[in-house]
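S., here's the first fold you wanted:
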Amino acid sequence: MTLIFATHNPNKVKEIQGLVPNHIQIKSLSDMNYHEEIIEDGDTIEANARIKAEAVSKLFNLPCFADDTGLEVKVLDGKPGVKSARYAGEQKSDEANKLKLLKELENKEDRSAQFKTVIVFKDGAQDREFTGICKGEITQVPAGNAGFGYDPIFKPSGYSKTFAEMPASEKNKISHRGLAFQKLIEFLKA
């Protein structure tokens, strides 16, 4: 089975490929020679995943899925949320986003947060949504070199290290994206 993953993000593709059974081949938008950016102007994580999945489904008429992820910080009323990738501006800088978030959390005692991923799957006949949530907290300082985005400042509940300090195999078992994708895989197997 070939599935198109509605992303240009090589980090997401690499992360997902580590979770895929051998009989499922994942192709990114770059693999499909599609280099345009799909405008994500939804008000929610769910809406943005749906926008991307619908666009890719129309473009290629093949089974596809799209995801959107947000980091939701309790004391910031769920921000950065749907704006996580562009929190510090349209340039989509991981470093600027982390620094802005850490600055906003200075002197805040409650640093609880959660990552939320929503995957929308479309194959012409079916349209399904899968959600994965990983609860944790924002650390005082970045730690680790693995992963991407907010990984160096997010420590999942029950763990003493950040996502960026974990090997991909460990992170994929507990991460928001890993949990949502496992639900998609179970659905595809059934």
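And the second, which I think is the more interesting of the pair:
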Amino acid sequence: MTSELPHDLVRTLLAVVDEGTFDAAASVLHVTPSAVSQRVKALEQRTGRVLVTRTKPVGATASGQVVVRFARQLARLESDARSALGMDDGGEHPRLSIAVNADSLATWFLPALAALAHDARICFDLRREDEGHTTELLREGEVMAAVTSSPDAVAGCSVRRLGSMAYLPVAAPEFAAQWLSGELEVLLPAAPLVCFDRRDELQDTFVRELTGGRGASALRHCVPSNEGFADAVTAGLGWGLVPRSQAEPRLRSGALVGFAPGRSLRVPLYWQQWRLDSPALAAVAEAVTAAAARSLD
């Protein structure tokens, strides 16, 4: 085993993981599948570790994820260097992969990227994931930056606080009259609810804070769409925690009612990104931080 990680081997591993098969990676790299296989084996011999699972699609092992993250960082630095030197990138523009939760994506996050996409000519590859799980994509090297609820930095990343997103407990008027007219600590744990997906624990957290321990009802509807979530609550499928910026217009119109006066759930959000001296990544971080300061608590 040697200490070197040849860049051609590293790039080959990245292509295999991104494309999902050795054949597809060979097509992208303009080499034969046999050459791809030999390069991956050579890299595994150099590291002394199995880097990919020979499945369809190919997956990166824990050791492979380390190399994949290095490969993405290497590609980012190379692109920045070529740009700084005024070298032709064949018409390509910087591409940044970012993980962001659905509620941020639907409210304050996209305006932060709009000006950059035009002025800095940066391309974005956004991955939607629950804010409690976006750090997993950072750790696996799938993204370069993430909006997350975790203040604990992933290895090799920096962290800055963005603010808190406020969620209001709301329901359709008819639903509230049927299910929530009375002692809320008793009624809410049994009331049907709307959640984003099976990973969404916001409603459970709110009920536990209200009752001192009891969770939310098992009678729940999963609606994996930000706007669809608010629509489902408005339609009366169940109660739910809706971002304040989305809830307030519906509260004013009477389409929704608040059933727990003075209560809300606040989720702290952080920006984590690779520690790279990358102008493109730095520009995005500044734009996101500024947008969060305007929109979040």
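Why I say that: The chain has a mean pLDDT of 89. The first strand starts at residue 52 and ends at 53.

Talk tomorrow,
H.
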